[in-house]
């Protein structure tokens, strides 16, 4: 509690400072952007009926979801439910999707989603899947970009605060998930005071099946008890390595804002995953008990299954020579970003005024010559000067993240001084700076985390909104800002609000996704065990206190729409198949007094809502999604009789 | 862009058609008097067949199908395939020999051309907007739209063959 008050106060103080400073600048800026002075409006205007140039997948932050925006318009296209229940379409409420939110802690209907990353082939975006991490109850989700649906969620055991996640290697061989909070591994009852030397931080490498996208944990690297904050893969020449920033190398367990800021330098951990992979393939590592859920949604049965796994392979870095090195990096680095060539690793020391850039070539050289500057828990520490490529001198205050364009420039976000700074990779000179409103976290360039960025736009994902929109009481949305970066100077084009608190985002040219986007599920491929695929399959079956209704629907009726013989105390399963085979004709289903949500059934799919009637009567259900001129007629009744009634089950539609 | 070009061409074509002699029809479609109850009573006295019973063996409707040749003999294999498709994709709204949500297909080829039937299956949105008879049918069936079940032309042809067996 005290900690959160402290944080709150400091944020307010910082924000206060920032907003005081920016007030004047902003006014000036607004004047300069009076519409007539620039053609900014024209450059973000997507005319009615026209389509955006990019899909942007922006994390939903503490909404737990993933938001899909169009760029450059900044229009919200869809909120994809991932880690949180979504009553709008029944995600996490329907019987089919409830297993997706199962964990070793039971059903967890919420999470904090942070860092989406789009799959790659040869270091270039390929648009197959987007991955995103759940930070709070450690999980990684895979969203299929044909179906725009969360198709898999894998829980990460031995992790806590799954923050340096979910970043992929350049052929999507692995999705990587690092822990921010170190914990006892395995968990046990012990004094918090004994943290130092006893807690561990796990870095999890999840293998991705190239055909199906299915994930499974290949190994967990058991690292010293630091905080593993962010990570990025090596690419091109540094492919095979993965880089993680650390803070709290002090191993403090209380008042971290002071106690974890003592060391002049923390580390970037450089992990040679190819060496460890080989070690593991040759039988290395230790299997340890671990309980974690693996949840998969099948696109033909439209149904998720949750499997509880019970062991995981762990690797002690000491057992694999050449696997891990520490690169000293000033002042609690946050973002850990690798440039498109794979040569430069940028450490954004959030309490430092400078940006530190390490050289991959120099790092390999120092390793080869064994030029070490000590060790930490047996892991060699390289000499700071030996691996340093350069320093961007005093570009701003509070650097957090760096993205890259396709012209050899880097763009770093500065939280405290609330600006984006463009600098030249290699010469480290600052080329441009633009204020943002206010206090930017991540920045994002489409493909900015790949070998081939699309350097046309930069999005600043801001933490503080304040006066950018009409006030909506004390609680505001977050704010994103779109810059045109095609010229020498960055140009602010557009503000738009975002859901939750978007941390990172990932964007891709629309042409790589849109042509494959699914329009309907084929009824012929529907393998749901309770599907009513023809009117002949329509029935109502009692199994003890359970009543299963095999129902279908099409514009604009349910079959059956009159059901009798249900009793108080029954558990009624509405299994509803949408018989439409046309694009954008979903039907909704809602029944009075349901203690969950509605269903939104897309064409060709089957979904199930459970209803436990508590009162005798005749109760209506209806379609919630305006489907045709006769939508209002799309309704039905269930007669609910007393528990001891002997009325037989019956069902009908019209006179049939 | 390409779509709008197509639309323009269509509109132009329609404009041509409407100039080209079907004046009576045009008048009917746009006539307010027609809809007044008085007129209806008078016409009722004569013989007003509901559109579902009317016979039009010339119109091919609007859509991808411009010509279908029916062999003298029914292709039973194709009809069986059509029956399966009909069962899966159509019975939510149609019964073989009675009016349900939509009209019964039995005897349909005595009232409509095979092209019209296939266009109604394959292209219902445009049909109910642009084909005069389909428009009237929509009203006769309470405005309940014929759903596009995304059949292929081959599938729609099989369903047509099945209709011949009814």
TrEMBL record, chain A:
Name where it's found.
Cell envelope
Give the InterPro entries listed for this entry: Copper_CuA, Cupredoxin, N2O_reductase_N, Nitrous_oxide_Rdtase_Sec-dep, Nos_propeller, NosZ/Cyto_c_oxidase_sub2, WD40/YVTN_repeat-like_dom_sf
The lineage's top-level taxon is Bacteria
Any single GO CC term annotated in Swiss-Prot or TrEMBL for this entry? cell envelope
EC no. given is 1.7.2.4
Main subcellular location: other
> Which keywords describe this protein according to UniProt?
Copper, Metal-binding, Oxidoreductase
- GO function terms (MF aspect): copper ion binding; nitrous-oxide reductase activity
PROSITE patterns registered for this protein in UniProt: COX2, PROKAR_LIPOPROTEIN
- In this record, what's one Pfam family? nos_propeller
| EC primary class | oxidoreductase
Q: What is this protein called?
A: Sec-dependent nitrous-oxide reductase
Please name the source species: Bizionia myxarmorum
Gene encoding the protein: nosZ
Automatic annotation (TrEMBL), chain B:
Q: Where is the Cytochrome c domain?
A: 77-166
Q: Please indicate if the UniProt record lists Calcium as a keyword.
A: no
Show the Pfam families listed in the entry: Cytochrom_C
Q: Which residues form a coiled coil?
A: none
Gene3D superfamilies in alphabetical order: Cytochrome c-like domain
Against SUPFAM superfamilies, the record matches this protein to: Cytochrome c
What keywords are assigned to this protein? Heme, Iron, Metal-binding
On whether S-adenosyl-L-methionine is a keyword of this UniProt record, the answer is: no
PROSITE patterns recorded for this chain? CYTC (PS51007), PROKAR_LIPOPROTEIN (PS51257)
GO MF terms held by the record: electron transfer activity; heme binding; metal ion binding
Q: Which InterPro entries match?
A: Cyt_c-like_dom, Cyt_c-like_dom_sf
Domain of life the protein comes from: Bacteria
Kindly provide the name given to this protein in its UniProt entry: Cytochrome c
């Amino acid at each position: 509690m005290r900690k959160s008050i402290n944080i709150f106060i400091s944020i307010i103080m910082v924000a206060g400072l920032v907003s005081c400073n920016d007030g004047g600048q902003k006014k000036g800026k607004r004047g300069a952007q009076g519409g007539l002075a620039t053609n900014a409006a024209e450059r973000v205007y997507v005319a009615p009926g026209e389509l955006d140039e990019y899909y942007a997948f922006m994390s939903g932050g503490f909404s737990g979801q993933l938001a899909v925006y169009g760029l450059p318009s900044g229009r919200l296209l869809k909120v994809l439910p991932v880690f949180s229940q979504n009553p709008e379409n029944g995600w996490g409420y329907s019987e089919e999707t409830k297993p997706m939110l199962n964990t070793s802690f039971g059903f967890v209907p919420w999470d904090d989603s942070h860092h989406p990353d789009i799959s790659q082939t040869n270091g270039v975006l390929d648009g197959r899947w987007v991955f995103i991490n759940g930070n709070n109850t450690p999980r990684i989700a895979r969203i299929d970009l044909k179906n725009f649906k969360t198709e898999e969620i894998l829980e990460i055991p031995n992790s806590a605060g799954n923050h340096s996640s979910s970043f992929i290697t350049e052929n999507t061989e692995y999705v990587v998930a690092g822990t921010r909070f170190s914990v006892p591994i395995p968990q046990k009852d012990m004094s918090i005071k004994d943290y130092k030397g006893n807690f561990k931080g796990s870095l999890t490498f999840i293998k991705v099946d190239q055909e199906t996208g299915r994930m499974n944990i290949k190994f967990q690297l058991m690292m010293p008890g630091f905080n593993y904050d962010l990570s990025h893969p090596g690419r091109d020449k540094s492919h095979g390595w993965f880089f993680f920033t650390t803070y709290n190398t002090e191993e403090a367990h209380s008042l971290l804002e002071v106690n974890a800021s003592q060391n002049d330098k923390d580390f970037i951990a450089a992990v040679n995953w190819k060496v460890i992979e080989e070690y593991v393939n040759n039988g290395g590592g230790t299997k340890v008990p671990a309980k974690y859920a693996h949840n998969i949604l099948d696109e033909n049965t439209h149904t998720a299954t949750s499997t509880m796994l019970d062991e995981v392979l762990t690797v002690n870095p000491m057992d694999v020579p050449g696997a891990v090195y520490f690169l000293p990096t000033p002042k609690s680095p946050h973002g850990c970003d690798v440039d498109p060539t794979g040569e430069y690793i940028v450490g954004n020391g959030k309490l430092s005024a400078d940006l530190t850039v390490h050289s991959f070539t120099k790092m390999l050289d120092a390793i080869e010559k064994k030029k070490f500057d000590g060790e930490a828990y047996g892991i060699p520490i390289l000499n700071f000067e030996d691996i340093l490529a350069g320093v961007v001198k005093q570009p701003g205050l509070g650097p957090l993240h760096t993205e890259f364009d396709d012209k050899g420039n880097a763009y770093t976000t500065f939280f405290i001084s609330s600006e984006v700074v463009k600098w030249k990779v290699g010469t480290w000179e600052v080329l441009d700076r633009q204020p943002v409103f206010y206090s930017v976290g991540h920045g994002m360039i489409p493909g900015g985390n790949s070998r081939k960025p699309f350097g046309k736009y930069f999005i600043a994902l801001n933490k503080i909104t304040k006066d950018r929109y009409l006030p909506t009481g004390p609680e505001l949305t977050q704010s994103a800002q779109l810059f045109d970066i095609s010229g020498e100077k960055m140009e602010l084009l557009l503000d738009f609000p975002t859901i939750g608190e978007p941390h990172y985002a990932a964007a891709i040219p629309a042409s790589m996704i849109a042509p494959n986007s699914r329009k309907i599920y084929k009824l012929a491929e529907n393998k749901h065990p309770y599907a009513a695929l023809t009117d002949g399959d329509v029935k109502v079956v009692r199994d003890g206190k359970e009543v299963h209704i095999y129902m279908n629907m099409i514009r604009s009726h349910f079959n059956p729409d009159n059901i009798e013989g249900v009793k108080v105390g029954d558990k009624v399963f509405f299994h509803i198949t949408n018989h439409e085979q046309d694009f954008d004709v979903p039907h909704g289903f809602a029944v009075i007094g349901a203690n969950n949500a509605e269903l939104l059934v897309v064409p060709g799919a089957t979904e199930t809502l459970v209803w436990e009637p508590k009162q005798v009567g005749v109760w209506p259900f209806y379609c919630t999604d305006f489907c045709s001129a006769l939508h209002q007629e799309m309704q039905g009744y269930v007669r609910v009789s007393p528990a001891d009634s002997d009325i037989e089950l019956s069902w009908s539609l019209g006179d049939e | 862009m390409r779509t709008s070009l197509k639309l323009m061409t269509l509109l132009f074509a329609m404009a041509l058609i409407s100039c080209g002699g079907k004046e009576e029809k045009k008048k009917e479609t746009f006539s307010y008097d027609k809809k007044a109850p008085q007129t209806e009573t008078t016409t009722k006295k004569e013989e007003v067949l509901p559109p579902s019973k009317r016979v039009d063996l010339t119109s091919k409707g609007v859509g991808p199908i411009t010509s279908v040749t029916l062999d003298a003999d029914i292709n039973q294999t194709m009809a069986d395939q059509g029956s399966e498709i009909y069962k899966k994709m159509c019975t939510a709204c149609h019964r073989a020999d009675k009016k349900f949500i939509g009209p019964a297909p039995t005897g349909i080829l005595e009232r409509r051309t095979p092209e019209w039937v296939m266009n109604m299956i394959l292209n219902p949105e445009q049909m109910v907007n642009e084909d005069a008879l389909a428009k009237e049918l929509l009203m006769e069936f309470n405005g309940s739209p014929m759903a596009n079940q995304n059949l292929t032309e081959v599938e729609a042809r099989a369903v047509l063959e099945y209709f011949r067996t009814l």
